[in-house]
Amino acid sequence: MTITVIGAGYVGLVTASVFAELGNKVFCVDIDEVKIANLKKGIVPFYEPSLGEYISRNINEKRLFFTNSYGQSVPKSQIVFICVGTPPKENGEANLTYLFSAVEEAAKNLKGYTLITIKSTIPIGFEDDLEALVKKYAKTKYEFASSPEFLREGTAISDSLHPDRIIIGTNSKKAEKMLLELHAPLPGERIICDMRSAQLIKYASNSFLAAKISFANALATICERTGADVTKVVQGVGADKRIGHSYLYPGVGYGGSCLPKDVLAFIAQTRNFDYDFELLRAVDAINNGQVASLVNKVRQSLNLTEKQGKNLAGVEIAVLGLAFKPNTDDMRDAPSIKIINSFQDLGAKVTAYDPKANEAAKKILPDIKYSDDLYEAISNKDLMVIVTEWPEFAEIDLEKAKKLLKKPVIVDGRNIFDAKKVRALGFSYTGVGR
Ligand code: UGA
Fold it and tell me: What is the pLDDT of residues 240-283, one digit of tens each?
């Protein structure tokens, strides 16, 4: 098949590469000229393991083409995937500006029957507005479908090649057949439904994952107060196959461009349908509380009480990890931002180290020091705080770290260390929920 993917962000680039890899001819369109010029040379605008190889290979094999032109791609395509971002507005609702302009441009360029498939996360009910927009411009027969994406950053290619499920949201038999055929080489359960249900599946999935994480974070707080060990508690809870182990790891809270945004958008949207999603409001509140909890642990581990004016003045903190999770340089809604802002508000000086995200972080956190070396970052600091669980942090030479730090203090926001082992080496160690 010939397909066009609109939007060269995470979802768009991975979708385009995977469909090209499966043997389709794929055009990837984006309005950003620099981005497209770089992509033509195989330069990926963000860090994602193996994506660059997939892009280069499919460019070389003439299955993947990058362009700024809707006119050169859409008229040749049987399916047009809309993969542009729907970032949150201040009130939590999704900003649909990019979505509407992408759909409008696509509509103006349709030629012959075309299936417009929405992969962007769009609010429930907005498919009607999109249909009205296309109707205004299209001079040909078209249909709509919604096929949300479930890939995770850091494992995007393998998630796309091995999906648990493929959602085909459409009322058209022809559209259903086309999407089944396109996805035929991929594994996973096929779920055929209407567009609204497809959109709800996406919001509900991300919200449920967020709820599991907040549940684990609430358990961690309870463990801290009762003296239980949350690692054992979640191991025991997750061993029940009905619950499962994944997304039950407590930490500094969920971040990234999806979970926080989708939880807030789901709360805002369901309110429009006269439902107060109290459960999700609590999920969000628990998530926000994880930052304050970490900051408190820093204060306590330095024996500073709140009575001393919540003050971290003069304290030098090494923050290890900035990206919202390992294997990405993505700083969108990363917990590190709120954590570092709190440290700064309390007067601390911060030096940060992240294996991949230092450059991206400099734009958001310009007033801190950055180090390109882990050991240099912790040198002469009052303590080190683990914010992202990069594998190299768990491998740190703790004897060396102890010598480099001013005080042997670790606050581990991701439970990467064995508490007993670290304490036996003479560290003051505070994890999450144990
Ligand atoms: C998430 C979903 O997992 C994908 O299925 C979905 O396609 C994507 O959003 C999206 O909507 O595009 P992603 O944002 O890449 O993917 O991140 P996750 O790997 O799900 O992690 C989200 C956050 O939860 C991270 O900050 C991570 O550190 C945190 N987390 C995850 C925990 O704190 N504990 C856990 O047990 C698991």
Answer: 999 999 999 999 999 999 999 999 999 999 999 999 999 999 99
Closest Cα to atom 7 of ligand 1:
150
pLDDT at 307 over 70: no
Alpha-carbon distances, residue 277 vs 91, 204, 264 (angstroms): 16, 12, 10
Nearest CA to ligand 1 atom 29: 254
Q: Which residue ranges have their beta carbon within 6 Å of ligand 1?
A: 149-153, 206, 209, 213, 247-249, 251, 254-256, 258-259, 324-325
Q: pLDDT (tens digit, 9 = 90+) per residue, 125-179?
A: 888 999 999 999 999 999 999 999 999 999 999 999 999 999 999 999 999 999 9
* 223 tagged catalytic: no
Rounded to two decimals, the pTM is 0.96
Q: What percent of the chain has pLDDT over 70?
A: 99
Bridge partners of 145, per DSSP, are 117
**Are 278 and 143 in a shared domain?**
no
Instruction: Find the domain containing 36 and state its range.
Output: 2-193
Q: What DSSP element (H or E) covers 334?
A: none
| Burial of residue 42 (number of CB atoms within 10 Å: 0-12, 13-18, 19+) | middle
Same domain? 316 vs 415? yes
Domain count, the chain: 2
